[in-house]
Amino acid sequence: MIKIAPSILSADFWRLGEQIRKVEDAGADMLHIDVMDGHFVPNISVGTPVVKSIKGKTHLPLDVHIMVSDPERYAPIFVEAGADILTFHVEATPHPNRVIQTIKAKGAKAGVVLNPTTSLSTLEYILQDVDMVLLMSVNPGFGGQKFLPFVLKKIEALRNWVEKEGLKVDIEVDGGIGPTNVKDVVKAGANVIVAGSSIFAADDAGERVRLLRKLAEEALR
Ligand code: DX5
Ligand code: ZN
After folding, report:
1. pTM of the predicted protein model
2. Cys-Cys crosslink for 216: which of 1, 2, 27, 131, Cβ 3.0 to 4.6 Å?
3. Which residues are catalytic?
4. Average pLDDT over residues 126-144
């Protein structure tokens, strides 16, 4: 089943509530919230106050992607703020297993994120313990970047691995996805599609959510 996860990084924060309502009404499956610390990535976005104010105002699960150094310290704080699924970067900690345990102990789903050039081999002792793997298809830090096509092979390899092991792990892909390439991403094996600028820069964000889903589902036929 395909899940569409609009990223609010590209939303108009003046009208954030209204824009979230739009994508929710259009059938989005979760809301992707990008947290950037200006240290792990060269940009600063939003923190716990934004997660807290969205929590409870939408029925969409909050998919919080923390692009921060020291996820051991920050993952639990974002779960307390309201994350339903929390994804952190494997590159940001020497203790990914500890972070996963902490997130789950706090009652959220746990996922790990790999930068475009981080090898799938980093998942060898992690895959069985996570609910989701997020593969970055741009270098994290900014919305509106161009999709890196070499990631398609990586998605395919991860899908094969997950199937071979019979695991129930979602494969989310994030960065540069829009109507022109969403089919390729789904055909490669992704089932959770993040889209920021493609949705919130469109004239009608709701219409764009429906279009992405339609194209994604066509790709499965
Ligand atoms: C990038 C973020 C993405 C970003 C995607 O670092 O993790 O979630 O918002 O934006 P688009 O879809 O515009 O590439
Ligand atoms: Zn993201």
Report:
1. 0.98
2. 2
3. 34, 174
4. 98
